[in-house]
Amino acid sequence: MSSGRSRDKKSENADFARRHFLKQLGGVTAASATATTAHAAWGGSSLSDTFADFFQQHYREMSAEEIKDTLERIERKARKRYGVDIHCKDTAAMDGVLFGYAINVSKCRGYRDCVHACVKENNLSRDTQYIRVLELDRDNMNLHDADHYYNSDTVPVAGKHYFPMQCMHCDNPPCVKACPVEATWTEPDGIVVVDYDWCIGCRYCMAACPYQARHFNWGYPKLPADEITTDTHYLGNRPRPRGVVEKCHFCVQRTREGRQPACQEACPSGARVFGNLLDPKSEIRYVLENKAVFRLKEDLGTEPKFWYFRDK
Amino acid sequence: MWVSFLLVFMIIGILVYFYQLSNGLVVTNMTNQVSWGFYISNFTFLVGVAAAAIMLAVPAYIFDRKDIKDVVLMGDTMAVTAVAMAIMFVVVDLGRPDRIWHLIPAIGKFHFPESLLAWDVVVLNGYILLNLAISSYILYQHYHGREPKRSRYFPIVLIAIFWAISIHTVTAFLYSSNSGRPMWNNAMLAPRFIASAFASGPAIMALGLQIIRGMTNYPVSQSVINHLAIVTSIALQVTLFFIGAEIFTEFYNEGEHAASARYLFLGLHGHTALTPWIWTAIALLLLAMTIFMIHRTRKNPVFMNIAFIFTVIGIWIEKGMGLVIPGFVPTPIGEIYEYAPSIAEIMITLGIWAFGLLFFTVMAKAALPIQCRYMQKNSDPPHPEACTAFKPD
Hints:
The complex is a heterodimer.
Chain A: H1 13-36, E1 41-42, E2 45-46, H2 47-55, H3 64-82, E3 87-89, E4 99-104, H4 113-121, E5 132-137, E6 160-165, H5 174-178, E7 184-186, E8 192-194, H6 204-208, E9 215-216, E10 231-233, E11 245-246, H7 252-255, H8 262-266, E12 272-276, H9 283-290, E13 306-309
Parallel strand pairs in A: 3-10, 4-13
Antiparallel strand pairs in A: 1-2, 4-12, 5-6, 7-8, 9-11
Chain B: H1 2-23, H2 38-51, H3 54-62, H4 66-69, H5 72-93, H6 116-143, H7 150-176, H8 189-215, H9 222-252, H10 259-265, H11 275-293, H12 295-298, H13 301-319, H14 343-378
Helix pairs in contact in B: 1-14, 2-5, 2-7, 2-8, 3-7, 5-6, 5-14, 6-7, 7-8, 8-9, 8-13, 9-11, 11-13
């Protein structure tokens, strides 16, 4: 594991001074805002919320109290924007857990049920998909020859095989290194996450990712209000702002509570194996120990925690 | 006339930028496949132009060439202008410019030294400060009719010279560090960046100095222009050699790593949007190089200026559309999306160029009279008609 950096609430003095400074600044502006325009709508949210948004700290720098305020504000904004009551949590990583994924290529039939379950579960803009299933000739492993836009109503096609791809949650993630503001990092359970409220939208991480796993909100996410998943996580499926990067987060809102990721749950052919790499009795450990597994672009040294294998 | 012409483009650019701010980057033609486009292309080109200011600074400050010393401040001004424009191109490319304070060390969260983009922020801002320090000190002294103290400015000049190389090197590393994109992931990239910068930068400077000479009585010696022509000539030869070496390596045993190069130079699976651009660029650069290498054409003002213009356009294509875009095509997993800038991107880009030209004009108008007055008083022998005044507009 590269970085098991814990969320240290009491960091160095510099951090404290910075928070203090911003708090004062935010306090002054918020106070003047409430005095004059308590009910004013400013871009769909109150002026004090807008200021609080602007001065919001990096997720890992916030105190417990600041995080609570932030989560409440996120819920408030979702209600304003979509008229939906969401619950936004920030469940921390469990001890002794390191998530990994494996795909049984022999079983995948290319139905894309995982893709659609992911879109729904993760409140994705309807023009964005975290999972991409590639269709390739059976004797071909070269991704550059894959069909990304095959028709999933007529699968499986004889002589083809299917490769689902999503964020590989690399143990040595080039995207994390690239980010100029540390808006993306590896959590202690191995999930590479994005703080959507800290990302400046430079998209350098997208240039750095060798798996095309990162997606940008070019416009406002197209999210139908009546299809919103209301159980959300700060680092996961909460409604996203415009102009920031997002990606697969192994359904952090589910998996940190012991549930399956939506893609695995949706897969009709049992091709998906997800679990704790540190648990010797887990299915993923069985696969890694007993199957001939491989990873994509291993030569790049990114160390994906995402494997592929075949039955035969 | 000139200023109002620029102001029109600037205002259009600002208005279109507000349109982009209120709608998001969806008004550009960038996508998740080609996630950097025209803005970052122009940024890359301009960092090179800024770096090339040392082609005046080195002969002026290190080798004490009098003719170049007379115009070296214009080189510094051009460097400041180019970096300012480069920074603006990055800012208009940001999805969340309101969060730019996240980049400020101690207040935000600056990912230094891991992120190459953080390095770029450091070197570009440092370069602008160094150049401003040098030129404002020298101008201040000249304004008071004093000779600038060498011991005061020379150490900063030395740092600025090395710093200039660093800005374009870091910008090249920004690309070459991405192991997932074989076209960029190449040790040749930084040398290629430096070589092409030393062609495009001096070419722009030569054109700018001749325009200043035409518009004002400011003495720009032809020997300075000739010096810049020779620098451009050598840099072009090296640039074209580097491009050739890269083409050979990509195509002799062509593998998947050459997919972007194939897309750029020959087209990939019938997609050829960039092919005419890159061959235009190579043709322009070859023509310019030939003009510069033949003494009679290089010394002919018309041919020489054609060669300077060809160099600027050629490198602008090669460093922008010819380097940034094909790095994204095909994507690392083989998808092809053909990018061309949207109207909004073009208008904002023109706005930033207009701002740059206006900024340079204003700076030059402020600096040149100070320089003139100083020269009239302190030249030995005195400049015969040393810039009495600006010609009327």
